[in-house]
Amino acid sequence: MRSVLIWAAVAAALLVPVVAAARSPLLAWRDSFYIAAGFAGVVALGLLLLQPLLAGGYLPGVRIRLGRRLHAWVGAGLVLAVVAHVAALWVTSPPDVVDALLFRSPTPFSAWGVVAMWAVFASALLGALRGRLRLRLIVWRLCHVSLAVVIVVGSVVHAMLIDGTMEIVSKVVLSALVLAAVAKVVVDLRLLAGLRRMAWRSGR
């Protein structure tokens, strides 16, 4: 029953914002590219919830090895969602996208979104080059999790500052869940690092 409730909660957290966004009156008279950009952003925020849950092995019935493999695939989907979001906005208004990328946009949410975007790309690149970089596992994880924190904080602030496609209540709930999930990963990683230091000291 606990597993069913967890999966039901995750499914609701992912689907409700999409359904609520589809009913938004702010989409009236908008062109298809603007709508596509908005929904790509909604999907990206939802994928951010899955990432820490998969990486940390918090989803019942998903083994660690499978979870990490799915984490990589969801990460690729997140990159595609971000690219689709930016590309559709570019078609809608190229000058606004250029201003955002150059950090000269008058809208505060643009800078947060751009920082999160580059962190997404950096995180994906770090994951793809994991074998070639030859970093110690704990160092690689610290870098990856640090980028994840930047992504989540930037994305949540970006989403909260926009009065757009997403419905406010579902957006707040999803954003809170994303923050809680990544905070859980950060705490667990720190505990793991602490336990390893204790084991190393005791073995000296």
Tags for this entry?
Four Helix Bundle (Hemerythrin (Met), subunit A), 0% strand, transmembrane, Fe3_Rdtase_TM_dom, mainly alpha, Ferric reductase, 204 residues, single chain
Short description:
This protein has 204 residues and is an all-alpha fold. It has eight helices and no strands.
Largest beta-sheet characterization: none
* Strand element count: 0
Q: Which structural class do the helices and strands define?
A: mainly alpha
Integer average pLDDT: 90
CATH topology: Four Helix Bundle (Hemerythrin (Met), subunit A)
The CATH level-2 architecture is identified as: Up-down Bundle
Q: How many independent structural domains?
A: 1
Query: What is the percent of helical residues?
Result: over 70%
User: What fraction of residues sit in β-strands?
Assistant: under 5%
Question: What's the overall geometry?
Answer: globular
Which blocks of ≥5 consecutive residues have pLDDT under 50?
none
InterPro entries: Fe3_Rdtase_TM_dom
Membrane topology: Multi-pass membrane protein
Transmembrane segments: 31-50, 70-91, 111-129, 138-162, 168-187
Protein name: Ferric reductase
